[in-house]
Structure prediction request, 574 residues.
Amino acid sequence: MKYILVTGGVISGIGKGIIASSIGTILKSCGLRVTAIKIDPYINIDAGTFSPYEHGEVFVLNDGGEVDLDLGNYERFLDINLYKDNNITTGKIYQHVINKERHGDYLGKTVQVVPHITDAVQEWVMNQAKVPVDDDRKEPQICVIEASMEPFGYISALGGTIGDIEGMPFVEAFRQFQFKAKRENFCNIHVSLVPQPNATGEQKTKPTQNSVRALRGLGLSPDLIVCRSAKPIEMAVKEKISMFCHVEPEQVIFIHDVSSTYRVPILLEEQGIIKYFKQRLNLPIDDQPSDLLMKWKKMADRYERLLKVCSIALVGKYTKLSDCYASVFKALEHSALAINHKLDLMYIDSTELERSTEAENSVKYHQAWHKLCKADGILVPGGFGIRGTEGKLQAISWARSKKKPFLGVCLGMQLAVVEFARNCLNWKDANSTEFDPDTKNPVVIDMPEHNPGDMGGTMRLGKRRTVFKTQNSVLRKLYGDEMFVEERHRHRYEVNPELTHCFEEKGLKFVGHDTEGNRMEIIELENHPYFVGVQFHPEFSSRPMKPSPPYLGLLLAATGTLNAYLQRGCKLSP
Prediction:
């Protein structure tokens, strides 16, 4: 097993997740089996109870793990399926060690950070690195580890910044681990920022020098320094970093801001990273990548040449931070690229569509409605809580009545049912029991197995099967006319099965349900170009070269090409 540790410096959010994913993609293109691990130093057991404004979206895995959104990057780039144990947190490690102590595994010894916590980190990494993540179920050969830990104010990729107090046990664990794994099996990549102040226009290397110095002071020496910058870095800067950070010039890699993340693996490959890994880790590979990386290059080239634009309005409550809907954005982008369109995603705060906003700030209200009206399609994603739901209902009502292509995901589907009940069945107080426990028409109810005590891990989570109950379904055709699909879920509430017949009589069809037939999974509205709701989260399974069918359907309908696509047998035009 070869281990590649990715650390980061200077600031957080520098893109070490994309760098780690891109390195994995390059090595996979060379024929190697690659897995990935993300280390986060927070004490939470997992990301399940975070507000999206804390760390961005909560990404859900097949096994129901609620994890950091970077694992979504790994899955999309590498086309693999990870597990909840691929996301290590301080909480998980301490819980694991404390459970062993209570069980008597330490034979009465004093349990300490060193060696017990650091040993637990190393054992977890070694065990999880062996777990197959590809469809062929073979053991991986390479494990890319992104770690957040920072050197005293300078960010690093052990999941945060090196120097954070909470990250120090992980730093020490990997200082020891590099000797346990042996030099030929362990490589450290440090991602750093090269800022360029507007006042001088000069690219500054001092932050990178300080970051590398702090990392070395903790016992880890970078084999590669990946420099992030807004603009391409000059050769003189590369030579300066090489000299003051004690590495060869070929060990300094530049990644400037690019039009799409698809370009990042190409930039790395162009700077000789395959040849370096082959020599440094004794990898049995050729110097040139395979067809996989060529496909990435073609995809990146195609992305940059797109001329046609498709606009989608995303109506949600966490619109101030795009990372809150990272997988939704990627799923839309994958689908837009598949039909040769550039995506114009317009974020609309659902509260700004509500009547209360018109009274408080009429400019915001009219601007939000202007964006909604000019969009080619409308998407209402998942979420929790009552804030902004009336605005989402307004958007859904507009999409239904004006025959605008619409996709509702999780809460978006539930609200589509609520809107239909209120305006088509004339059940004016219809609601979800999440928002009104005493409603006379509870069209959305809490799950039977939900335990309202603990918040963490109590939802219906992970990959579940959805069975199509009719041949006459747009989504079934988009899925290739399969009898069932398996997608990831994350919800507590769902459509009340006792009331579904009332909706079906009026044209809102429940075309998919769970294997027992009790849980409604997919809705489709008759006599509408595309009005679809799904209880699951198809965005988590979308891949750059395999777009998610519900999202692809939305983009096709928004560009007026859905019928032609279905008539071609669900084949994209060249």
